Every structure is written in C-alpha cells, then in structure tokens.
Amino acid sequence: MKVFPIIAAAAFTAVFASGCSNTSRFNYSAAYGSMPMLMPLPGNPTVGVLPAEDCRDAVTYPDDDNANETSGSYYLGMIPFMPFGWHTMRHPEQSGEFATLSQFDFKPAEDLAEAAALSLKTSRLFAQVKRVRDPQNSACTYLWRTRLNSTKYRGFLITYGITYIGAPFLWLIGFPDGLSSARLAVDFELIDCATGKVVWNFRNDLGDTLWHWMYARIGADADLYARMLKYALSRALTDLSGRYPGIRPAQAAKPEAAASEKNK
Q1: All structural domains of the chain with their residue ranges
Q2: Is 115 helix (H, G, I), strand (E, B) or coil?
Q3: Residue bearing the bigger pLDDT, 67 or 18
C-alpha cells in the first residue's frame, strides 16, 4: 500500500515542478487563430504603428471583484473540503503565480505594437505599415494606437476537496489539475495625422479559459493572451475595412476646401 503515497507525491511534485520551471514568451505569430486578408483601402493610405499604451492602472471595471494587484493563494487547496486553491493577478508578467507556469515574458508597449503591425501588414488594408516612435515625423496618413486596459488572470489548482494529498490520484487518471482564466481588454484607434483627431476606434473586452491536465497544456497558462489579441485585431480590421468609406470623404474634402478658398 506504500506505493500509493509515493505515486501521489510524484504526481504532486510533477505538476508543481513543471509550474516552477516553465517560462512562456508572448508569441503572437504562433498563436491560435487566423489574420484576415482584406481588400486594400481606397486612396492607398499609409499607417504608422505607435508603441502601445499600458492603461491597466488607470482603468477599472465594475465587474472586477477585487482591485488589488494580487489576491488568493494556492495554499488554500491544502484545506480539507476546499475544492481548489486560486490566485488572481492584474499584471501577470510581474508575478509567477500562474497555475502551471512560473514566468510570463510580456512587454506590452512593444509586443502589442508588433502584433498590430503584423496583422495590419497581413490585412493588406494599407499601402505601407511601419513602426513609428515620433508621431510628429511619421510621414503617414494615419497613426495606429493600441491601449491596453486589462490583462486580469485567475489560476486554479483543483483539489476536488481532498487536498493536494489525495488530488494527485485523480490527476493521474485524467482529471483536470488546473484552470486558467484570462481577460484582455484592449482598444484600437486610428488617428488622422493631418488633424491629430481619432477618426475610428474599436473596443474589445474578451475573456477565455484553458483547462490543464497533468499530460497536456502544462505551462500554457498565458497563451490565452496572444490568441485573444489575434481575435481582437481580426475583428477590428474587418470593422475598419467596412467603415473606411465613411472616414475617407472627410480626408478627401480638405484639398477641395483649400482650392475653394483659394478661388475666392
């Protein structure tokens, strides 16, 4: 009978050791989902992609049950009859408290801008897409701006009420050992370089979950963010493609108005 405690200890150690040694990098190009290819916008406009703005400390949501940076504890799973231990983070790249992951390498300003530039190029909407640092010297028709509002993460290690001593037996036979739940709230804006005004914007507030098993998806906790961003950008670019005819006339009217003034 001594073999059962040994198996339980091995299973428990395997799950926690994998979570303590895995590092995940934000990888937009490899994320699940497709990037749309659309018809080029009329007039061959160009766009410059600005570094993303991290607004997570300035934006709050009414349905957020806690505004703290982190909360909860996986050690709660050691309490008998407690179904799980859990941990919540608002800035997941700053903490290693994932369900099965130790560290998330994520740089919002650069990673989100690079993702937007890749999707913009793939979409074929603009004649030229380039990264810009200085909006005043972009030499583009438009600027693309991304605002990151939330990356809330909540991880669970599931004990089924029998603590981490008994739960590994269930994990071994195929019961899920964890769950990752993530939120991505991100806004996109198109700015007219001639006037500095926002001529189009698109808001996203998305959520997704991922189950973990001892034999699968260990260390995939943060993969949710890249695939949600890919979905958000696909929706946004499709929307921009349909709405652009209503944006462009305002741009085209300026030279005509100038010529009219000149002839007076």
Answers
A1: 3-263
A2: helix
A3: 67
